[in-house]
Request: fold
Amino acid sequence: MTVKKLLHTRMRVNDIERSVKFYEQTLGLKVTRRHTSPRGAQLVFLATPNSDEEVELCQMPAGAAPVSVQADLMHLAFAVDDLAAFAAQLEKKGFKLSDGPTKTSSGSIIAFIDAPEGYEVELIQKA
Reply:
């Protein structure tokens, strides 16, 4: 027996509105739904273009320990057609790459941008 497919990935955040704005402005993700969990956490689901998987952002209720993401803990990776053009658009919006662009041994080009709380977002232009 195996699972059928990946549905979403949850990331805890300290400021859900700041994080929603980041993912909307930098990657063009779209909010599909919002609700409060039975434990009182605020949840926002973001749709990813051309994919069934969603990114779920979770802000715990007041009093919860703040999120502190250790370096290189995890990242989300997204395909882009033209990394240079994508990076130029990010810069116009006030966002800068934190690493790269770097050509890989496969011929792809990768770069990273830091999301709120220190999560990394990898951008990949396939060879």
